[in-house]
Amino acid sequence: PWRDRQVGPPVTGTVGEPVSLPCRMSGSPEPYLSWILPNGKVVRRGTAVPGGLTIETNGSLYLPNPSLRDGGHYRCTAVNHYGRDGLSVQLILNSQEPRTDAIRLETHEDVGL
């Protein structure tokens, strides 16, 4: 039977910094795992995907260098001869903010006596 009602906790990351979306599935026989991206494209193990997205050995989807457009809802699906299961995960990406401690402005005023 198909069950895709599970929703994982949202994952928050930063643009340009690697992030992994968890998906731990188990079954016997071992299920075939894939991820459906927010744009509808499907990522399978061993498939080359622009941007370097890969499925890790534990089932997590690894995004090495995410951009703002990578944010959204992802769906992990597992299928074997006995059924299907799925998990939805929302990726929230924050833009990198300039470091405020990297800039320091000093002012000097002459004081007359």
Provide the domain count. 1
Q: Helicity level, as a percent range?
A: under 10%
Give the terminus-to-terminus CA distance.
88 Å
Helical stretch count? 0
Give the arrangement of secondary structure elements.
Blueprint: E1 2-7, E2 11-14, E3 19-21, E4 32-36, E5 42-44, E6 54-55, E7 61-63, E8 72-80, E9 83-94
Parallel strand pairs: 1-9, 2-9
Antiparallel strand pairs: 3-7, 4-5, 4-8, 6-7, 8-9
Please provide a written account of the structure.
The structure is a single chain. The chain is mainly beta and 113 residues long. It has a single domain, classed as Immunoglobulin-like. It has no helices and 9 strands. Strands 1, 2, 4, 5, 8 and 9 form a 6-stranded mixed sheet that branches. Strands 3-7-6 form a 3-stranded antiparallel sheet, with no helix packed on it. The chain is elongated and about 80 Å long. It starts with a strand and ends in a 19-residue tail after the last strand. This is Ig-like domain-containing protein. Keywords: Glycoprotein, Signal. It comes from Oreochromis aureus (Israeli tilapia).
Tag the structure with descriptive keywords.
mainly beta; Immunoglobulin-like; three-stranded antiparallel sheet; 42% strand; Ig-like_dom_sf
